[in-house]
Amino acid sequence: MDTSSNAPKTVNTNRRTALYARVSTDQQSNGLDAQIRALRQFCEQNKITNFEIFADENQSGTKASRPALDRMMAAVERGEIENVIVFAFSRYARSVSHMLKGLEVMRKYKTNFVSLSEKLDLNTSLGNVVFIIISAIAQLERDLIAERVRNGLAAARARGKRIGRERKRNSKLIEELLNAGLSYREVAKIAKCSHGSVHSQKVEMKKRLAEEERQRLAEIERKKEEEKQLEAQTRFLIDSRTKQFNENPLPLLSPAPTTPPSNEASPAQKSLSGGQNTSTSYPSTQPN
Predict the structure, then answer these.
(1) Residues facing 17 on adjacent strands
(2) Quick one: which H or E segment has residue 47?
(3) Is 271 within 8 Å of 263 (Cβ atoms)?
(4) Span 1-12, average pLDDT
(5) CA angle 25–30–33, rounded 5-degree value
(6) Does the annotation mark 194 as catalytic?
(7) How would DSSP label each residue in 68-121?
(8) pTM score, two decimals?
(9) What is the mean pLDDT of the chain?
């Protein structure tokens, strides 16, 4: 019965300290010796005896991969390194993102990082604050790089330059054949392209159709919302007018006054009768 999976993991108690030094050119051997001397002196002052020196000569700080640095980080990932001591941040990395990546690996494997020039120890409270600041700066650096790339691509498109590899497949023909129900093999044979091109065009077609459907549904929802708003405005107007009428009703109209008929002849009648009064007189019905 195999019980190795249930056995507790052994902890390497004989962890050592890594001293890292670097110079950019082979003409800076004195600088390399000065860094190693300062690192050794720090170990003597702090009574650190179990250490190993990792030195990179003629290696630029912009390179993420260097022989001695790679060997040191491999030892860190194996859990063999307790402390990493450098003369300055710039000796380890020039890029903030590279520095942050290395610090994250060290924190993952419980390895402390010490910089002599900056007098920084990540095991201290100030070290944790600096780690957070470095993380924020690294994120800012990544965002700025991404923004510059996007701006460059937009400028290239504005100048009419095509981004990416030129497409040679007949997209319209492939979509028509796929809609007709033909298989990948048949479509590829007719369109004279690979199966991968057929699949890529099918995925692109599905995305485009899904986006068109989404836009159509969004337009329907927008029109429904406009109709609801119009209906609500109309209802509000009707309710307000009804309330206004109930509070201030219009006065009732009185009938127009009637004038009694006159016995005097009109001018036209007078002209016909020669100026005589043609009005008819009726006998009085009153008793004498």
Answers:
(1) 51, 83
(2) none
(3) no
(4) 44
(5) 105
(6) no
(7) HHHHHHHHHHTT-EEEEEES-HHHH-SSHHHHHHHHHHHHHTT-EEEETTTTEE
(8) 0.46
(9) 81
For residue 173 the two structure tokens come to 């023909």
Lowest mean pLDDT across 95-104, 118-127, 209-218, 266-275 = 266-275
C-alpha–C-alpha distance, residues 237 and 225, integer Å: 18
CA gap 196, 177 in Å, rounded: 15
User: Listing from the earlier edge strand, what are the strands of the sheet with 112-115?
Assistant: 51-56, 16-22, 81-86, 112-115, 120-121
Residue in 81, 89, 82, 84 with CA at minimum distance from that of residue 119: 89
Q: Compute how many other C-beta atoms are within 10 angstroms of the C-beta atom of residue 250.
A: 6
What does 172-191 look like in DSSP terms, one character per residue?
HHHHHHHHTT--HHHHHHHH
183: how many CB neighbours lie within 10 A of its CB?
Answer: 12
Number of CB atoms found within 10 A of residue 68's CB: 17
Please tell me the distance from the alpha carbon of residue 24 to that of residue 32, in angstroms, as a whole number.
10
53 contact partners, CB below 8 Å, separation of at least 6: 19, 21, 36, 39
- Rounded distance, CA 44 to CA 29, Å? 23
- CA distance linking residue 247 with residue 74, whole number of Å: 88
For residue 116, give the nearest of 51, 21, 24, 15 by alpha carbon. Answer: 21
Which residue is catalytic, options 24, 90, 97, 200?
Answer: 24
Return d(Cα 126, Cα 112) in angstroms, integer: 13
Distance CA 184, CA 22 (A): 56
